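As promised in the previous annual report, we have extended the structural survey to additional targets. Below is the entry for Ig-like domain-containing protein.
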Amino acid sequence: MNDDDYSATELGSHWFERPTPEASPVRAAEGEVLRFGPGVTAAAVRRAGNTPTAVEIWHGTLPGAPAPRPARARWPRRYALAGVVLAAVLALLAWQRYGPRVAVRDVTVTAAEQRLGCDGTAEVVGVVRTDGRPGTLTYRWERSDGTRSAPLRERLARGQEEARLHLLWTFHGPGTHQAVARLVITSPTARSSAASFTYHCG
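The corresponding structure token record, generated without further manual editing, is:
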């Protein structure tokens, strides 16, 4: 074995003597070479002279001993691309969640028939025009007979500039009734529009 290249620190289980500052850094026991400290080659000991201290041996500060190489900072280059991609994804999610919401530009309501016959069902259509941003419309229908629907929601995809909302209103029995159906947008902005028709049976 080439002693100049041997730098491991190892003690056999049968060796229990502790080194002292005055002791030689290299001791032989039963044919083995035993070393103390971080591992100092015999060549480094020869370059340092014959009087190295135990502290110098332990800390690896012998004169002529090669200095430890500093660890290279590889993290920034290795993870830079992944960090950029993660930041872009988080920015997109934040923009979709907290960015500008859909804006309502116009609301119109029409009835398919202006005059409804006996036991007929009127179809009322509300058309909501937006700026094309994604989002959710919250709305309700109100009828002239005093009833109103629960809050309803319509999801809009990106680029969708129109939503068509439907109401079916059924009448029974004889009589004449002037009916009004109103669409009320409550979110993202308050808007409303109404349409009227006549129910006649007699």
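The helical segments are 42-48, 54-59, 75-98. Residues 16-68 form one domain. These points will be discussed at the next consortium meeting with the crystallography subgroup.
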